[in-house]
Design brief:
alpha/beta; 2 domains; seven-stranded mixed β-sheet; binds (2S)-2-hydroxybutanedioic acid; two-stranded parallel ribbon; Aspartate Aminotransferase, domain 2; 14% strand
């Protein structure tokens, strides 16, 4: 029984937070977990969100349950933001963050008879755990060369043959975690042809809209893809672009033919009910208030533009640096919070122990966590371990 449980290894991402906290050095640099930090190293509540919170506290009439689907207006607004008009027919349910949405989607896949999920690798370290927790098999599909920082789309599509009809494939919508390398329009078109040929259910993980090139630009590829496929599952997160990390804001959307939507919706309700019953309200209410008030929405867009601007500036500084064996210009041209450096384990350990630079075990760096004042020290450390 409980005595038989073995100790699990720590989560590969969350353990970095702990290691960093426990490091007494004051000049350490945290490029671990994906949170945005401003020039002072703080992760402030966005002003538009703060204002929405004020209104909520003042005006929220009740704390009764939000219902099985969660906040329907939140889902309508966030769906419109991401999918435009085509999202109107999608089935949706509020989720406990983007992670919760991924889990709901995986449970739905399993209940629909899927057995495998193709996972283009490298991927977010929590993807395999979520897929396996839903009792699905993870099938890795290598698609990216970290040394050259390039996507191999043909290798990825060739990997589709490893799955059976009805299985799924996880595709990241934009600002890939951990690679920062996004699919072009042509690649999204090829992917749509590939999933249809092999009868796969695409599962799009879209957690960073607005962190790449802009709110609209970041979802152009995913929208094009979705317009071409009959079925799709999409996990959205409000953690990053609304800075609502700890409030666990997310939603799951499903594109399905009209005659199957009622079944999809009721299955999602049943999965959620047996897990956490109904979703939390606060973060989703904040997003609803921001998106439904033109002035607050504008304020939020400007704050998001500034966050993206800071990441672009950091990437430009990285692109200008010359580091042995690392194609810095490609890293500079990538999008979103993350990139993965071609480093060996010993180099990652040395960066941490000798220079106080923390990144994940697979050398993912959080661009949004690298303040300008630490850039030179970071580059010096990188030069030292690669020379
Ligand atoms: C990350 O990848 O660092 C974030 O998405 C945080 C998390 O939940 O892992």
């Amino acid at each position: 029984m409980l005595n038989d449980l073995a100790v699990k290894p720590p989560d590969p991402l969350l353990k970095i937070i702990k290691m960093f906290r426990e490091d007494p050095r004051t000049d350490k640099i945290d490029l671990g977990v994906g949170v945005f930090r401003d020039d002072n190293g703080a992760t402030p509540v966005m002003k538009a969100v703060k204002e929405a919170e004020r209104r909520l506290v003042a005006e929220q009439p009740t704390k009764t349950y939000v219902g099985q689907q969660g906040d329907v207006e939140f889902q309508r607004l966030i769906g419109e933001l991401t999918f435009g008009e085509q999202g109107r027919d999608f089935v949706s349910i509020q989720a406990v963050g983007g992670t919760g949405a991924l889990r709901l989607g995986c449970d739905l896949l399993r209940d629909s008879g899927a057995r495998r999920v193709l996972l283009p690798t490298p991927s977010w370290p929590n993807h395999p755990a979520i897929i396996r927790a839903a009792r699905l098999e993870v099938v890795g599909a290598p698609f990216f060369d970290v040394a050259t920082q390039q996507i191999d789309i043909d290798a990825l599509i060739a990997g589709f043959a490893k799955a059976e009809k009805g299985d799924s494939i996880i595709l990241q919508g934009c600002c890939h975690n951990p690679l920062g390398a996004d699919f072009s329009r042509q690649q999204w078109e090829k992917l749509a042809d590939g999933v249809m040929k092999h009868g796969l259910i695409p599962f799009i993980d879209l957690a960073y809209q607005g962190f790449g090139d802009g709110l609209e630009q970041d979802v152009e590829g995913a929208r094009l893809f979705l317009s071409r496929v009959p079925h799709a599952i999409i996990a959205l997160s409000g953690a990053k672009n609304f800075g609502l990390y700890r409030e666990r804001v997310g939603a799951l959307f499903v594109k399905a033919p009209a005659q199957t939507r009622a079944a999809v919706q009721s299955n999602l309700f049943a999965i959620a009910r047996a897990n956490y019953s109904m979703p939390p309200d606060h973060g989703a209410s904040c997003v609803r208030l921001v998106l439904s008030d033109p002035a607050l929405k504008q304020m939020w867009i400007e704050e998001l533009d500034a966050i993206r601007g800071q990441m672009k500036k950091t990437r430009a500084a990285l692109a200008a640096a010359r580091i042995n064996s690392i194609p810095m210009s490609r890293i500079g041209a990538q999008r979103g919070m993350f990139s993965t450096l071609p480093l060996e384990e010993a180099q990652i350990v040395r960066l941490r122990e000798e220079f106080g630079v923390y990144m994940t075990d697979l050398a993912r760096i959080n661009i949004a966590g690298l303040p300008e004042r630490d850039m030179e020290r970071f580059l010096t450390a990188l030069r030292a371990v690669t020379s």
